[in-house]
Amino acid sequence: RDTVLFPHAVLPLTVGRESSVQLINSLGEDKTIVVAAQREARIDSPQPTDLYAVGTLAMVHKVVRMPNQSLFVFAEGLERVQMKEFVQLTPFMRAQVETIQELAAGRGAEEEALQRNVLTLFQQIVAGSPTLSDELATVAMNIEEPGRLVDFIASSLPTLSTRDKQEILETYSVRPRLEKINQHLAKELEVQQLRNKIQSEVQDRVQQTQREYYLREQMK
């Protein structure tokens, strides 16, 4: 629900549905599952049509059993996959999947400029956010592959909606993926700057009101 896992990202997943718990418990030496987002988070018992067809093949690294019988699972995204035919619905879903090949971007001046712009915008957003760790900007600086950079940024931005993240996941060609995340980052930075400006103006008004109050009290 409201979760999109990207390749190369590690995501903690809370597994509470009985069918999903059975799926995790059934894993043998092959610890791979497919993580796919629901189209509507409110649906408690999703059917194949309630899931996005494109998801991420993931490796389950660790399973923590909670006191309420639910599971806490650490899953690492491996690659984009498309679910084809569902061959089993109970006790958990099983489907045939097909690996999606990424279409690499060119390495011309435009692609290089676009990648640098994406990185700069992300660094500015991290620097101006009270909730995002500075380490995110450092990690992003060390990612050379443009497609992987976009996936990392998309998975790190809490303001991106599930629909927007899914759209980026389904964009197999790297150049359009760079352009999409660039638009999201530009909008996010503008919103962040406006929010900071509003907060600053409010603080200035509060301080001015307090100063006037103290002056009146002193005059009294």
Helices and strands, with pairings:
Layout: E1 10-15, H1 18-26, E2 32-35, E3 54-65, E4 71-88, E5 94-99, H2 109-128, H3 134-141, H4 146-156, H5 162-169, H6 174-219
Helix pairs in contact: 2-3, 2-4, 2-6, 4-6
The total strand number stands at 5
Shape: globular
- Which structural category do the helix and sheet elements fall into? alpha+beta
State the helix count. Answer: 6
Residue runs with pLDDT of under 50 for 5 or more positions: none
| Share of residues in helices | 40-55%
> End-to-end distance, in Å?
60 Å
Q: How large a portion of the residues is in β-strands, by DSSP E? A: 15-25%
**Mean pLDDT over the full residue set:** 94
Give an overview in words.
This protein is α+β, with helices and mostly antiparallel strands and 220 residues long. The chain contains six helices and five strands. The chain has helices spanning 18-26, 109-128, 134-141, 146-156, 162-169, 174-219; strands at residues 10-15, 32-35, 54-65, 71-88, 94-99. Strands 1, 2, 3, 4 and 5 form a five-stranded antiparallel beta sheet that branches. Helix 2 packs parallel to helix 4 (146-156). The longest helix is centred in the C-terminal third of the chain and has 46 residues, at 174-219. The model has no long low-confidence stretch (mean pLDDT 94).
